[in-house]
Each structure stands twice: as C-alpha cells, then as structure tokens.
C-alpha cells in the first residue's frame, strides 16, 4: 500500500451463534390441542362465509345470521387467545 493512506480496519470476526427463537414461546402443557384445532377450524369456516354476507349487505340484504356469525367469530377468537396465552 501507498504510504500516508489509512489502512482499512481488519475485518472483525464474530462467532456464529444461533439466536434464541423469540418468535415462539413454549406451549402450555395444559392446552387441549385437539379442542384448540377444532375451534380454529370453526373460526376459519365461519370467517370464510363473511365476505359473501357482506356482498349481500352491499345489495341491501342483511343475512339474518351475519351478526350471530360475527359474535361467534369474536367469541372463538377470544377463547383461542386465552387458551394459547393464559397470562393475559
């Protein structure tokens, strides 16, 4: 290298260490996984029917069970959340 020019810093070597997986938390052993799966499937089925109901609302027709479906979605969602994260 030419004199008077600063030398680039030596590359620093850092050990490669796997970071702990903070995105997932340990599963509570008291969770009934079959019931949680069943509720999640029911939640998904009910939620899939809402866009069709909203289309009906856009046409001036309110399906009689749409409000009940939305309440059921809310109830299932709250229950699943409490089962999967009981600290709250």
Architecture blueprint of SSEs:
Blueprint: H1 33-58, H2 66-84
Helix pairs in contact: 1-2
What labels would you give this structure?
88 residues, mainly alpha, 2 helices
3D architecture notes:
The chain has 88 residues and is an all-alpha fold. It has a domain at 33-84. Helix content is 51%, strand content 0%. It is built from 2 helices and no strands. The chain has helices spanning 33-58, 66-84. Helix 1 (33-58) runs antiparallel to helix 2. The protein is flat, with a radius of gyration of 26 Å.
Question: Whole-number average pLDDT?
Answer: 80
Instruction: Report the total helices.
Output: 2
Q: Total strand count, please?
A: 0
Could you give a short account of the major beta sheet? none
Query: What is the helix/strand order?
Result: HH
Strand content: under 5%
Query: Kindly, what is the distance between the CA atoms of the first and last residues, rounded to a whole number of angstroms?
Result: 62 Å
Q: Helix fraction? A: 40-55%
Low-confidence stretches: none
Task: Label the overall shape.
Answer: flat
Helix/sheet category: mainly alpha
């Amino acid at each position: 290298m030419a004199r008077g020019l600063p030398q680039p810093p030596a590359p620093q070597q850092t050990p490669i260490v796997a970071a702990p997986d903070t995105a997932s938390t340990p599963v509570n052993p008291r969770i009934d996984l079959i019931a949680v799966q069943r509720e999640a499937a029911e939640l998904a089925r009910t939620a899939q029917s809402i866009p069709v109901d909203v289309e009906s609302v856009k046409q001036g027709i309110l399906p009689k069970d749409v409000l009940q479906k939305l309440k059921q979605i809310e109830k299932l969602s709250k229950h699943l959340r409490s089962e999967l994260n009981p600290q709250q």
